[in-house]
UniProtKB/TrEMBL annotation:
Taxonomy of the source species: Bacteria, Bacillati, Actinomycetota, Actinomycetes, Kitasatosporales
Native source organism of the sequence: Streptomyces montanisoli
Protein name: Organic hydroperoxide resistance protein
UniProt-listed Gene3D superfamilies: 2.20.25.10, 3.30.300.20
Similarity section: Belongs to the OsmC/Ohr family.
Pfam families for this protein: OsmC
Length: 142
């Protein structure tokens, strides 16, 4: 399998200090957050965590991909939402991994049309393309 190179349209830059128990900031000052493991993982839950940040990015990106597909197919997705549920856990081979559940609500479409839109958006979304074959990603209509 070869890796396809991209022609960058934008590059985000963020720096972490002290890993999962510290701080993450972007180079442009737009993001500056305290990170801390959730209580269920031994942290104090005082800050956000990498899974929440990944969920935020994936849900926003996937919503954008739905918009691309909707414009191409002339679908009304006004009022739609995408919720990303990101889980972290131990891998049987050792180490840790994540899994993602994407749940979309599209009021103007029925369940079948929403599921079709989700499948097509999953082929367009950069997060989906980056994680394909690496993590479990499930799609469902709310």
């Amino acid at each position: 399998m070869s890796i396809e190179r991209i022609d960058p349209l934008y590059t985000a830059v963020a720096t972490a200090e002290n890993g999962r128990d510290g701080r993450v900031a972007s180079d442009d000052g737009q993001l500056d957050v305290v990170v801390n493991p959730p209580k269920s993982m031994g942290g104090n839950g005082a800050g956000t965590n990498p899974e929440q940040l990944f969920a935020a990015g994936y849900s926003a990106c996937f919503q954008g991909a739905m918009g691309v597909v909707a414009r191409q197919e002339k679908l009304d997705i006004s009022g739609s939402t995408v919720t990303a549920k990101v889980s972290i856990g131990k891998l049987s081979a050792g180490g840790f991994g994540i899994a993602v559940e994407l749940v979309a609500s599209v009021p103007a479409l029925d369940e079948a049309a929403t599921k079709d839109l989700l499948e097509k958006a999953h082929q367009v979304c950069p997060y989906s393309n980056a994680t394909r074959g690496n993590i479990e990603v499930s799609l469902s209509a709310a």
